[in-house]
Amino acid sequence: MNHTSTIIERPSLWQTLLRQEDGPLTSDLLLQPGRFGLGQVPAKQAPDATTAMICGFCSTGCSLTVHLKNGEAINLTPTVDYPVNVGMACPKGWDALTVLKADDRATAPLVRDANGRQRAVDWPTALKLFCERMKDIQRRHGPESVAFLGTGQIATEEMALLGSLAKFGMGMIHGDGNTRQCMATAVVAYKQSFGFDAPPYTYDDFEQSDVIVLVGANLCIAHPIMWQRICRNPHQPQIIVVDPRKTETAMAATLHLPLRPKSDLVLFYGLAHLLIRDGWIDGEFIANHTDGFEEFQRHVAKYTPERVAETTGIDSPTLERVARAIHEGRRVSFWWTMGVNQSYEGVRTAQSLINLALMTGNLGRPGTGANSITGQCNAMGSRLFSNTTNLLGGHDFQNAEHRQKVARILDIPVASIPNRPSWAYDQIIEGILSEKIRGLWVVATNPAHSWINQHMLRDVFSRLNFLVVQDMYTTTETAQMADLLLPAAAWGEKEGTLINSERRIGLIKKVARAPGQSLADFSIFRLIAENWGCGEMFRRWTSPEAVFQLLKELSRGQPCDITGIADYRMLDERGGVQWPFAEQSPDPAPQRRLFADGRFYHPDGKARFMFEAPTEMPEAPSTDFPLLLLTGRGTASQWHTQTRTSKSAVLRQLYPPDVYVEINPVDARKSGIRPNDRVVVESQRGKLAATAFVTHSVQPGQVFVPMHYEAVNRLTLAHFDPYSRQPSYKNCAVRVRPVENHDRE
Ligand SMILES: Nc1nc2c(c(=O)[nH]1)N[C@H]1C(S)=C(S)[C@@H](COP(=O)(O)OP(=O)(O)OC[C@H]3O[C@@H](n4cnc5c(=O)[nH]c(N)nc54)[C@H](O)[C@@H]3O)O[C@H]1N2
Ligand SMILES: Nc1nc2c(c(=O)[nH]1)N[C@H]1C(S)=C(S)[C@@H](COP(=O)(O)OP(=O)(O)OC[C@H]3O[C@@H](n4cnc5c(=O)[nH]c(N)nc54)[C@H](O)[C@@H]3O)O[C@H]1N2
Ligand code: SF4
Ligand SMILES: [Mo]
Question: What is residue 72's predicted lDDT score, i.e. its pLDDT?
Fold first, then answer.
């Protein structure tokens, strides 16, 4: 009797966590106004002080100074003395607090009832349902029949807990993230070329280069503050933009190469050919630090300027001019983003850029590098710590020693760590189709909008026995499909770390209260662990900072070793710290790049030349579908599937509300389309109605639709890079025609 009453009196974990939500905001420890050595701001530890934290949108990782009243955020300004953004922010950053306050914030768990309506329940009911349904599926169909899809947009500590809970605690094998849509290509390219997934640069390189080559990267729109860093470059750099479209970035470049879509591989092999022909290579670097150059030399011998011109549309004199620029540049840097990664031959294309840097010795020195720019605020955290593609800390699921190490550090049975890698995102989707996967848990991503070939995805999701979506809003395309919606706190309402494009680890802080019963993802994962019955396994994962200490230990001895970072306070005081920073290493400089010593991560210390013959474009334009569809970012004020940015009245003023298609005047004329006409864009898989934006920014034969509008992925074709399994979002065949009577809009 006595025993029972103590149980009743003790608040359960969910009550404690909810109570914590109502407790004080930013802890004293984190009330630092930001003093990063670039300027001095007096430390004032009062509730009306300011506190600096990393922006939760893109991977640039700007610091925002949040102004507090009674400990609560009332406004923000870009942090003046932070080494990343030095006082600048883009519109999304400026309005990051507004998007937290929206009518469609998820404030309670929602369960779909017998009539198909989602209705609010309390946490104990939601947790019970989650565990019962998932366990039931696993009991009938095996532990692998449940999978998860994560994200590059929650804190590192959260993604580590999700990946560990799912795989070690709940017995899942398969879990991937939206980073597959985004960074998978760069990951595989770096691993094969350098021996570890390691983007080598620091943003200072933007300011140190004298030749900057931007490939499939529209910095002005997608990474505006990185573009600002280029604008601060005092060396009057040549800026060469390789993009089929005349983007905002291409317009500002010193040279734009409007190549045919997906002909990059031929272009860069052709450049390598010219550099070798003219002896413009760094023989010493090649001999001492690389492997496979002779074979590469033989391979590119075929890529004559004539052949390159025929395939890419870039003529020989222009190609010669670029080769000369690379030769004459003392500090040449190559940067790429989705125009490279999102391709059916993305890995080899990324490596064709890495090869150019290697053969010209443009690595490890200021202003150089083969530099993949990441996308989401914590894509880099996901690459190292999400426990999806890699075992925690950049380890390998298939390596027995790695499993032992992780088991020892986490104090869990080694048998609970899967000894095989997860299926990739597309394989998980296939797995649902073939009924091998029947339960899915989607966290902080919106696949029903963002995944390639949307009709297929929605059909596939509707076949699931149980779909759980964990999001901050109830109205996302995916949340609307959920059998169970778990309400999440957002950036600004929780603590943790993010890792930016240049490997800098920075802090996010709690400066606002999450609405209703919504909880930080971290708390939701802890609740599920407890309710699942594996809480004991995670007894040391009590807070984000406690997990950070575990992650440090997991990184020990790895290329991404961060054992030298004492704690959150150190991150706060230093303006973030780039990995690696191992214990006992000298005090880190504010800007650090990799490979200064010419040693790569393969056992022999050498980088590899990787190459392969180009492959045919799947679904090239045809008589029926004569145009090639390019997709990507539309404006600096729109973020992905627009769940967040559409909530800000200011941001909404800065982009067209409805979907539009950029079409060249030549193609418009052929189809009788005038500016601002309503048109239908259709592929073999679906169609959308859009406004025609007749413009020379796209070449004849190509059209562009921004990814922010829900309909775009009705058109795209599900095809993938064979090594990274990243979707090739930037090519499929379409036609455009005026809207006709039979089109119901
Ligand atoms: N405002 C804003 N900023 C963002 C985001 C956002 O949604 N909104 N998202 C973030 C994320 S997650 C990411 S991944 C990044 C993406 O950043 P970016 O990769 O810069 O953006 P995209 O517009 O997807 O693609 C870049 C360019 O690739 C070009 N391209 C298409 N096909 C080819 C090709 O075959 N060859 C070459 N060379 N280029 C090609 C397109 O024309 C496009 O201009 O942006 C991040 N920043
Ligand atoms: N056609 C086409 N499609 C593309 C691309 C393209 O270029 N062309 N680009 C691809 C790329 S690079 C990317 S990265 C993807 C992005 O695709 P998604 O990941 O699907 O896009 P987001 O809108 O960022 O979705 C994030 C979701 O997480 C929710 N959320 C935000 N913060 C939190 C949080 O703290 N906790 C929880 N639980 N939820 C949160 C948001 O409300 C939103 O629903 O799109 C891909 N799709
Ligand atoms: S550039 Fe990226 S990190 Fe900086 S303020 Fe804009 S969205 Fe935030
Ligand atoms: Mo992305």
Answer: 86
Average pLDDT, the chain: 94
> Is residue 248 in contact with ligand 1, taking CB distance under 6 Å?
no
Asked if the structure places residue 384 within a domain, the reply is: no
Same domain? For 203 and 301 the reply is yes
Which of 342, 372, 402 terminates a domain? The answer is 372
**Are the C-beta atoms of 148 and 441 separated by less than 8 Å?**
yes
Q: Which among 60, 223, 373, 648 is the best mutation to test ligand 3's pocket, defined by most ligand atoms within 8 Å of the CB?
A: 60
Q: Which ligand 2 atom minimizes the distance to the CA of 713?
A: 1
CA of 504, nearest ligand number:
3
Beta carbon of 186 within 6 Å of any ligand 1 atom? no
Using one digit for the tens of pLDDT, what is the confidence trace for 598-638? 999 999 999 999 999 999 999 999 999 999 999 999 999 99
Instruction: List the beta bridge partners of residue 112.
Output: 118
Does 584 reside within a domain?
A: no
Number of domains observed in the structure of the chain: 4
Give residue 19's pLDDT. 81
Q: Hey, whose CA ends up nearest to atom 12 of ligand 1?
A: 375
Same domain for 333 and 200: yes
Is-contact 166 141, C-beta < 8 A?
no
Are 174 and 190 part of one and the same domain?
no
Output the CA 9–ligand 2 centroid distance in Å: 41
What value does the mean pLDDT take over residues 472-487?
98
**For position 37, which CATH number holds?**
2.20.25.90
The per-residue pLDDT for 745 is 53
From ligand 2's centre to the CA of 539, what distance in Å? 31
Residue nearest to atom 11 of ligand 1 (CA): 375
Domain identity same for 355 and 470: no
Q: Which residues fall within 8 angstroms of residue 472, CB to CB, at 6 or more apart?
A: 105, 106, 487, 488, 489, 490, 518, 643
CA–CA distance, 166 with 309 (Å, rounded to integer): 50
If asked whether residues 178 and 194 sit together in one domain, one would say no
Q: Say if residue 267 is in the same domain as residue 281.
A: yes
Distances (CA, A) of 148 to 129, 172, 196, 439, 440: 17, 8, 25, 8, 5
Average pLDDT over residues 632-654: 98
Q: Residue 5 pLDDT > 60, yes or no?
A: no
Per-residue confidence band for 28, with pLDDT thresholds at 50, 70 and 90: low
Q: Mean pLDDT across the stretch 497-512? A: 97
Question: Which pLDDT score is estimated for 9?
Answer: 60
**Would residue 604 count as lying in a domain?**
no
Residue 197 and residue 173 share a domain: no
Mean predicted confidence (pLDDT) in 516-528:
96
Q: Give, using CA atoms, the residue closest to atom 2 of ligand 3.
A: 58
Pocket of ligand 3 (CB under 6 A): 55, 57-58, 60-62, 85, 89-90, 92-93, 224-225
8 and 15 Cβ atoms separated by less than 8 Å: no
Residue 316 and residue 309: Cα distance in Å, rounded? 6
Indicate which ligand has the atom closest to the C-alpha of 377.
3
- CATH number, domain of 328, equals 3.40.228.10
User: Between residues 324 and 20, which one has the greater pLDDT?
Assistant: 324
67 & 197 share domain: no
Task: Write out the two tokens for 653.
Answer: 């003023």
The residue whose C-alpha atom lies closest to atom 19 belonging to ligand 1 is 338
Q: What is the extent of the structural domain holding 357?
A: 185-372
pLDDT confidence band for 6 (50 / 70 / 90):
very low
My answer on whether omega of the bond before 580 falls inside 30° of 0, hence cis, is yes
* Predicted local confidence at residue 11, as pLDDT: 76
Look at residue 600 and tell me if it is in a domain. Answer: no
Examine the fold and report which residue of 338, 372, 406 is the final residue of a domain before the chain moves on: 372
